[in-house]
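Supplementary Methods, section 5.1.

A reviewer requested that the exact input to the structure prediction be made available. We therefore reproduce it here, unchanged from the version used in the analyses.
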Amino acid sequence: MTVLPVINLEDALGGNEEKVADEISRACTEAGFFIVRGHGIDRKVFDDAYELSLGFFGRPAAEKDALPMRTSTARGDNDYSPYGYSALLSENAYAYTGKQGMPADYVEKFSVGRLVLDDAEDLPFPADERGSELRAALKAYFAACETVSARVTELLTIALELPRDFFATRTDRSNDSLRSQYYPGVQQEFLNDQGMGEHTDGTLITLLTEDGPGLQLRDLSGNWIDVDVPERDHFIVNIGDLMARWSNDEYVSTPHRVRLVDRPRQSIVFFKLANDDAVIEAFPKFTRERPAKYEPIRYETFSLQKMDALFGREARS
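The structure derived from this sequence is encoded token-by-token as follows.
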């Protein structure tokens, strides 16, 4: 197991923001992964989301399959936030990185996007009391992740020498998503132990919690390193391709995967994105001594290229 940098957000109180910001920035540069605690989110928010999600995954297959994941809503074809259920082997993380013909993933998922914050939205949840409780639990968890991601990115603006509202003004309408995931233990009939194939995230940052081992990251030497946390209310945070591009690749979007182990595993992952009209252009701090590696791009274009690959849709011009 590797020891990731641990960032205690409580340490940023009392005039220590610059120190914590530098710790986060250093972790983004050296590993692309770090752990966040001291975030102030009630443990019950995590426990409710995990327990109600586990109850959902324990439902008969026919009930879950009646709530198939959709990747757009009435608000427009460009909303790729996922909503609903996806079964074992229905997705392939390798595809997200542009690799074709690779095996699919042994993971079940139940997903929501920003619309879960609006109780009036018609979303695919079970139409019973436990379904209503699951919706409330994922709503609370989603809101908590928005709070934590906002705090982490605000601190990063200090290290990046940007206005404090730089990320806030570019992510306030983003199609963020949350996926509650269930990995079965290794089973004899499975073709492999691939819970989720090797990939990088397309995010600004990703916040993940878990209740057991299985997550691995690939270090700079190419070795796969086990990552785990002692409690489900510790966030494992990683940099995504969006932040890597914004930082002129100074911040590392680290490949990672999930291997099945000898017991089931749950995780909940939150993907923090950017507004469709946000222009992704290298931060000035990282272009003073070398030129920008990428041309500026609207986030909408950047995102659709990746999501079309993940969901097997024809690429758009």
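The helical segments are 17-30, 43-57, 61-65, 93-96, 129-160, 168-171, 241-246, 299-310. These observations are discussed further in the main text.
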